[in-house]
């Protein structure tokens, strides 16, 4: 991250890791439904929706990841 200090990186997994501005955020609210094909595309769309509204890259990645996880948890509870 020292070579590219303005990058925000998201590693999608059992616990989603977000690295930005020398900070690492761990988002642990996901569910197994997020391992299905196409879910990364949905996450990218959610992040882009925040970016298009003027949020910073870091905030867009964090908010998009949380919204993605919370929606999957709600879906899992209701089905």
What does this 3D model show about the protein?
The chain is an alpha+beta fold and 79 residues long. 46% of the residues lie in helices and 18% in strands. A three-stranded antiparallel β-sheet has the order 1-2-3, covered by helices on one side. A hairpin with a 4-residue loop joins strand 1 (8-11) and strand 2 (16-20). The radius of gyration is 13 Å and the shape is globular. The model has no long low-confidence stretch (mean pLDDT 89).
Topology summary:
Elements: E1 8-11, E2 16-20, E3 23-27, H1 39-52, H2 57-78
Antiparallel strand pairs: 1-2, 2-3
Helix pairs in contact: 1-2
Major sheet summary line: 3 strands, antiparallel
Strand content: 15-25%
Q: Residue share in helices? A: 40-55%
Oligomeric state of shown chains: single chain
Pattern of helices and strands: EEEHH
Low-confidence stretches: none
Strand arrangement, major sheet:
1-2-3
SSE-based structural type: alpha+beta
The total count of helices amounts to 2
Shape: globular
Distance separating the two termini: 40 Å
CA-based gyration radius: 13 Å
Nearest-integer average pLDDT: 89
Number of strands: 3
């Amino acid at each position: 991250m020292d070579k590219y200090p303005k990058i925000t990186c998201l590693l999608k997994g059992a616990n989603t890791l977000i690295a930005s501005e020398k900070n690492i955020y761990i988002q642990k609210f996901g569910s197994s439904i997020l391992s299905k094909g196409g879910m990364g595309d949905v996450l990218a769309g959610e992040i882009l929706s925040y970016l298009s509204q003027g949020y910073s890259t870091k905030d867009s990645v964090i908010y998009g990841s949380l919204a993605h996880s919370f929606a999957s948890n709600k879906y899992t509870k209701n089905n």
